[in-house]
Amino acid sequence: MKKICIGVLIFISFGISVYLIGTNTALEETKYGAVEVILFSMPFTMILVNSTLFFLPTLLRSNELYARYKKGLENIFLSLSLILMILHLGLILLVTGTDINLMLLIPICVGIVLITTANTLPRFQVEISPTSSEFTQSTYHAWNIIVRPFSLPLYMGGSIMLFCVFLPGSLLLIGFFSILFCTLLVAFYFSYRAYQTHLTN
């Protein structure tokens, strides 16, 4: 289903660009490059990025490994496609003469990345083999302990970050970096506390 959504996003991005070129819509040159480049750079980037998803089963050479992480990987690629689509729409608004502040896209894109990361990380629990070295087992065990406490602040911070678009222009970046810093600080603190609690039990 997620692959279908990715395909739809790519189709829509190309469709909008082809429509604007084909209907001779009045388009304006911008400082970001020629109109044709702006209209088709993001759709082609979406194809290049998502082509990896379709070749992953071959690259991993393990259907079992791919099946285990399939949902998490598809979530990541879907979020990347959504971010590229948002950037594409922002650039289209520019070339069609709509005055838009591209800085507003920063908290939206980073917020989506944080939310997707928070939803995806818990899926990457590592199986600990009894034949592995003691160092490897302890490393994998530590990862399995901290991944969930680390994910929750990312989800909360990413959700709050989306509201930065409503801040005045002078406070946009201040609010964005403040939320990002606090999110990462709390995430590392939660994961550290979880690991320390595990050691004392």
TrEMBL record:
The chain crosses the membrane at residues 6-27, 34-56, 76-95, 102-121, 160-190. It comes from the Bacteria. Keywords: Membrane, Transmembrane, Transmembrane helix. This is Uncharacterized protein. It comes from Bacillus salitolerans. The lineage of its organism: Bacteria, Bacillati, Bacillota, Bacilli, Bacillales.
